Structures are given as C-alpha cells and as structure tokens.
C-alpha cells in the first residue's frame, strides 16, 4: 500500500498479515539509506507474522519504492514519515502498534514515540543514543561549502543537502528516551562496528529499557543464526503487549 509522507511524497509500505488470529501490529523503521526490503527488516516482519502480528514496514522518503528526494531528507523528515505511517495504520484499522526501529530508524522511533499515542511500546535494534553518530559516515568536509555532498553507504552513493547536518542539532535522543513513558527494549549487536556498544547502552540507560545482546552479531545481523536470535528476542518481548 502507499500513504503520504511528511514531505508530501507517496511512500511505499509492505503489510504482512498472519494466517490466523491477530495478536497486534508492529510498525517497522529501517536503517539509514536502507529500505523495507533489507533482510534485517523482512526477517523480523516474517517472524512477527508467524507469531500472529501484522507488520507494517515502509520506505522512508526517497528510498526503496517511495517517492520524494532523499537529498531533502533529515532526521526530522524521518520522524514525520513515522508519524504519518502510524496514522496510516490507524486509518486502515491496524493500530495501535508497537514501534520497532533499526539503527537510525530506532533513534527516529524514540523521537517519534513521544507524539504517537497509538504506540504501546518501542523496540530499538542496534540504535544510537545520539543522531550525531551518523557523522562518522560523512566526508570530513561535508556541508562546509554550504552545498550538497555525496556519501557512500554499502557501496552505493547518496546525495544529501547541508540541511541534514543542521537538523541533527535539533534532536536529543537521550532526552526523548528519558521522557518517554512507555516500555522500551534495546537490542545490542555484539559485534556492531557501525553504532557500537556504548551508543546502544547509553540509549538503554536513558530509556530505563530492557536490554538484550546478540553476541557476535554485526550491525545488520547478516548471519542467519543471529537474525533468528534477534527475531526470537523481539517477538517474545513484544508478546507481553499483544492486544489480540
């Protein structure tokens, strides 16, 4: 299905429904420059469906099958897209929901959850406690000339505008986590070289979250056994908030 994102572009969503009784629904936010079709997201969506949950995974503006220009995106637009996605779920009678975010999607989930009364709980997978951590993926002189700049993530080039950097200063993920009045689970990838242990644990501490570690897992949980362990952890934790 499609819905309209925060910037007015049509965003693409994949809705996966269980075969039997519905226990609840989960809204899924993918990682920076990724898509809803990344194996991390699709494996989690399948695990939730197998356990009786409706999953709603979408592509952020300018990524995957969604419209819009990725160069115009910021953390603020990601938060806005998440808010619109939660509204689309309610309008299609598949809310309220759990909110699950991977990497920067997890930080956006924390920031969005404070304004989403239809979110019962939040799951952050390999997520940073500070959106400024994303600067390590950017060129040292990014935005210095006030012009758009190119980054390379996973061997693919992406263009961003200087507004992306300016917007980072608007967001305090740890403060939002401290103020969040809903349950949070933080899952740490044991061998995460992108976000790292300290970022993840800072987020868990601020949110007073439950924390789980998948030993040896990389940032994307590329190993199938690690992905299966991740799925087991999040689905079992989510079961206490099932509405079905």
Short descriptors:
two-stranded antiparallel sheet; 7 helices; alpha/beta; 244 residues
Helix/strand/pairing category: alpha/beta
Biggest sheet statistics: 8 strands, mixed
Distance, first to last CA: 23 Å
Based on CA atoms alone, the radius of gyration comes out at 17 Å
Number of DSSP E strands? 10
Strand residue content: 15-25%
Order of SSEs, N→C?
Answer: EEEHEHEHEEEHHEHEH
User: In percent, how helical is the residue content?
Assistant: 25-40%
Unreliable spans are none
- Please give the count of helices: 7
Mean residue pLDDT:
92
Give the assembly state of these chains. Answer: single chain
Shape: globular
Task: Record the strand order, biggest sheet.
Answer: 1-2-4-3-5-6-9-10
Textual characterization of the structure:
- With 244 residues, the chain is of the alpha/beta class.
- It has 7 helices and 10 strands.
- The chain has helices at residues 39-50, 75-91, 104-113, 163-168, 173-179, 197-207, 224-238, and strands spanning 2-4, 10-16, 24-29, 53-58, 97-102, 119-125, 149-153, 156-160, 184-189, 210-214.
- The radius of gyration is 17 Å and the shape is globular.
Give a short summary of the structure.
The protein has 244 residues and is an alpha/beta fold. The protein has helices at residues 39-50, 75-91, 104-113, 163-168, 173-179, 197-207, 224-238; strands at residues 2-4, 10-16, 24-29, 53-58, 97-102, 119-125, 149-153, 156-160, 184-189, 210-214.
């Amino acid at each position: 299905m499609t819905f309209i994102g925060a910037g007015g572009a049509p965003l693409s969503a994949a809705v996966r429904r269980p075969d039997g009784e519905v226990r609840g629904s989960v809204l899924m936010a993918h990682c920076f420059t990724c898509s809803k079709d990344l194996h991390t997201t699709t494996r989690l969506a399948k695990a939730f469906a197998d356990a009786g949950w409706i999953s709603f995974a979408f592509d952020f503006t300018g990524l995957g099958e969604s419209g819009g220009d990725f160069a115009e995106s910021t953390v603020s637009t990601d938060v806005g897209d998440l808010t619109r996605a939660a509204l689309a779920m309610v309008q299609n009678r598949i809310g309220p929901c759990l909110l699950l975010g991977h990497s920067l999607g997890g930080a956006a989930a924390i920031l969005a959850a404070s304004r989403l009364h239809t979110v019962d709980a939040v799951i952050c997978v390999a997520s940073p406690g500070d959106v400024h951590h994303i600067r390590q993926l950017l060129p040292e002189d990014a935005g210095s000339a006030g012009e758009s700049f190119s980054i390379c993530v996973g061997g693919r080039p992406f263009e961003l505008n200087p507004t992306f950097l300016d917007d980072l200063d608007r967001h305090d993920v740890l403060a939002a986590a401290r103020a969040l009045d809903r349950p949070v689970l933080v899952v740490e990838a044991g061998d995460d070289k992108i976000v790292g242990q300290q970022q993840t644990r800072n987020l868990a501490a601020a949110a007073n979250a439950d924390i789980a570690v998948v030993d040896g897992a990389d940032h994307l949980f590329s190993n199938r056994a690690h992905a299966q362990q991740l799925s087991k952890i999040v689905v079992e934790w989510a079961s206490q908030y099932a509405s079905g």
